[in-house]
Design goal:
Layout (H helix, E strand, L loop, with lengths): L1 E5 L5 E5 L9 E10 L2 H9 L1 E2 L2 E2 L4 E2 L3 E9 L11 E4 L9 H4 L28 E5 L3 E3 L6 H5 L1 H14 L6 E5 L3 H12 L4 E6 L2 H10 L3 E4 L17 E6 L4 H8 L2 E9 L10 H6 L3 E4 L6 H11 L8 E6 L3 H8 L7 E5 L2
Parallel strand pairs: 11-12, 11-14, 12-13, 14-15, 15-16, 17-18
Antiparallel strand pairs: 1-2, 1-6, 3-7, 3-9, 3-18, 4-5, 7-8, 8-10
Helix pairs in contact: 4-5, 4-9, 5-6
Length: 344
């Protein structure tokens, strides 16, 4: 079967790869849809991000959904024909962090489409894949494969919201309103935020944030002082979700946070220089949020019930053989939120 394999930057190829046999606790899955993530774009355009670099060819992709075609002998509760969302998170279950209940920090994590370890962990942009049964989360009949593939980025948003603590009645600021930022808006609204303000420099992203449930959108490219009023009396917001990875966005948002506010850093954009005096004087809490694990099941539950409706965030779907068009559109924030590939 065919897969999308990245070589050097901009050298993405459709190649034949082996699927492998199905073990007793595994499933064979025909992939239906796969979403192009920011990390996929970084591998495609730059060969990696930060210190993570491609050292060998690697199959891209980790946001997928599809249909079970074969079931291992030790698996119960899932039959061929069952449509599923596939969690790309595969912790070992035995290292110190797994045993401490921190599987997203697993020392032997096998996360799809990751060049962090060498050999790299191949991803899921392929027509067929063999997975562990524990990765499979059933999808309701009325939910499309495209919607189900959004479970992965929604899991990232849910993990960030969980890390922030209680949201009920809180005032929330979200900077960076790409797919993750928009999903954080949805998750924070579902968690009970009383006010959500979205900040970005893209009109398209801010429109998506408003559709996702934000109360107000501020375009700081057009209105650089748009957040200034929120800095009165030491600040207004209880929680900041910084999803852009931009130092400028983070620094400008700190003035709008009230004392003892929480900074949830979700976006990855490289190292930053932060105003430690402001963080100290306002007693702000800086927290990171990295990937997810248990939240994947919650994400699929929200999608199945449409308590969180991701359809407005899906911009387009392309056959995987038209990957050049798909990646070009996915990288254009003025036009796209989430671009997906079809492997049918």
């Amino acid at each position: 079967m065919k897969a999308l394999v990245i070589h050097p930057p901009h050298d993405l190829r459709v190649e034949e790869v082996e699927t492998g046999s199905v073990g007793p606790a595994q499933l064979r899955v025909r992939v239906g849809a796969g979403g192009i993530c920011g990390s996929d774009l970084h591998y495609y355009h730059h060969g990696g991000f930060g210190t993570v670099r491609l050292k060998e060819p690697m199959i891209l992709g980790h946001e997928i959904a599809g249909t079970v075609t074969e079931v291992g002998g030790a698996v119960s509760g899932i039959a061929p024909g069952r449509r599923i969302a596939v969690s790309p998170s595969r912790p070992c279950g035995h290292c110190r962090y797994c045993l401490e209940g921190l599987p997203n920090h697993c020392l032997a994590m096998r996360f799809y489409g990751s060049a962090m370890p060498t050999p790299h962990i191949d991803g899921a942009f392929r027509q067929e894949i063999v997975i562990d049964a524990a990765q499979a989360h059933p999808v309701e009949d009325g939910i499309s494969d495209g919607e189900a593939a959004m479970a992965e980025p929604l899991s990232v948003a849910l993990h960030a919201v969980r890390r922030a603590g209680p949201i009920l009645g809180r005032r929330v600021l979200v900077t960076g309103c790409g797919p993750i930022g928009a999903l954080i808006v949805m998750a924070a609204r579902r968690a009970g935020a009383v006010e959500i303000v979205a900040v970005d420099i893209s009109a398209n992203a801010l429109s998506a944030a408003l559709a996702a449930g934000a109360d107000r959108a501020i375009n700081t490219a057009e209105d650089p002082a748009g957040l200034a009023a929120y800095g009165a009396d030491k600040g207004s917001f209880d929680i900041l979700f910084e999803a852009s990875g931009s130092e400028k966005a983070l620094r400008s948002a700190l003035d709008a946070l009230r004392p003892t506010g929480i900074v949830m850093q979700v976006g990855l954009g490289g190292d930053m220089t932060l105003p430690v005096n402001v963080i100290t004087a306002k007693e702000l809490e800086l927290r990171g949020s990295f990937r997810f694990h248990a939240e994947f099941a919650h994400a699929v539950s929200f999608l199945n019930s449409r308590l969180i409706d991701v359809r407005p965030l899906i911009t387009a779907s392309f056959p995987f053989t038209r990957f050049s068009e798909a990646f070009a559109l996915a990288g254009d924030r003025s036009q796209a939120m989430k671009v997906q590939l079809s492997f049918e």
